[in-house]
Amino acid sequence: MSTPRAYSVKAYAAGGAKEPLAPASISRREPTDHDVQIEILYCGVCHSDIHFARNEWGFTQYPAVPGHEIVGRIKKVGPKVTKFKEGDLAGIGCMVGADLACPQCRAGNEQYSPGMIGTYMATEPVIGGPTFGGYSENIIAHEHFALRIPENLDLAAVAPLLCAGITTYSPLRHWKVGPGRKVGIVGLGGLGHMAVKFARAFGAHVVVFTTSPSKKEDARRLGAHEIIVSSNAGEMKAHAGTFDFILDCVSAQHDIGAYLAMLAVDGNITLVGAPEKPLPVAAFSLIMGRKSLSGSMIGGIRETQEMLDFCGEHGITADIEMIRMDQINEAYERMLRSDVKYRFVIDMKSLR
Ligand code: NAP
Ligand code: ZN
Fold first, then answer.
1. Is it the case that residue 287 has pLDDT exceeding 60?
2. I need a surface site. Which of 113, 188, 189, 308 has the fewest CB within 10 A?
3. Whose CA is nearest to atom 27 of ligand 1?
4. Structure confidence by residue, pLDDT tens digits, 318-330
5. Whose CA is nearest to atom 4 of ligand 1?
6. CB-based burial of residue 317 (10 Å sphere; 0-12 exposed, 13-18 middle, 19+ buried)?
């Protein structure tokens, strides 16, 4: 196939680390053989969007168009596409392509493939320049990376499942969270509130650690059996040494040692939160009790579809607050104040 035509679409972009997001025009390509073009209806706002727009991880190319919790309708399909047809609903998360041939891809772990192409924070393989995320009119992805959306769920509230959903579902499954296991969720934001819903649905005893006493009621409603305000030393001490697994969903610097102290022997903490700076860990906090600290990035495509189907069967979606595209900078400021209940979703009609 010859190089596909590039065309302009409307988007919201950051021009630099210290600049607010503003209207912009970006280039997309026409679909190649296995690509789908999706008209974006809703896009969730992940804290990674803020880290990325502000270059907090150091990988950002500008202009930066965030957004990787995308749902919409298929507008066009390439000549070899078999998974979708025009008019179908589809979702895109943090990946739009990969080699599909390496051991990680073959194992269903496309997110760990050296050939993985991020929805943003990657290089566009066909027309060059950075890949652009979902704060835009449409997006192009290889059909393998487009997910089927359960028809019975509220579409806007499905969008956050494409990142916050799979990022919490995958490690909870990997570490076999279920009946008889005491599980802690640290940070009740976009990821944390999905983790609470999944851990509860899997049958675990669920405990939320929060810095926000005002979220206690919500935590219970979302499925937590117990809530610990992390600044309360007495509450923390009472639970020390009792957790089988803790999922750390915090976006900023915090004391990981305080949570390692919560683990039982052989307990694990998995980091999904990705703060800007390293988190210091004392050797003895792991040695005493054969504890482990690990990380997890989103989830593979097979598991993402499994998660969406699970949500369809169990009626699980995100708790969302809908915003217009031009409210994005204010939404970022509110997220930085932990004032989001529990995911902002952009109504993309507001961009057109
Ligand atoms: P979010 O909605 O902003 O939630 C973060 C929560 O962390 C806040 O609501 C707050 O909960 C807690 N928190 C914030 N600042 C804190 C501080 N200084 N000390 C202690 N707790 C604090 O963010 P999100 O979208 O859920 O994302 C969370 C993190 O996960 C981000 O770093 C993001 O980049 C990362 N992420 C990773 C992956 C992956 O694949 N691993 C995928 C998506 C996102 P309380 O009010 O309850 O304390
Ligand atoms: Zn995300």
1. yes
2. 113
3. 47
4. 999 999 999 999 9
5. 189
6. buried
| CB of 149 closer than 8 Å to CB of 89 | yes
What are the structural domains, with CATH classification, of the chain? 6-163+318-350 (3.90.180.10), 164-295 (3.40.50.720)
The length of the chain, given as a count of residues: 352
Ligand 1 contacts CB of residue 222 (under 6 A): no
Euclidean distance between CA atoms 323 and 143, whole angstroms: 29
Helix axes 301-314, 164-174, angle to 10 degrees: 100
Please give the biggest Cα pair distance in the chain: 66
For residue 250, the ligand 1 atom closest to its alpha carbon is: 7
201 residue type, one letter: A
Output the pTM of the full model: 0.98
- Grouping H, G, I as helix, E, B as strand and the rest as coil, residue 271 is strand
Test site for ligand 1: of 43, 45, 47, most ligand atoms within 8 A of the Cβ? 47
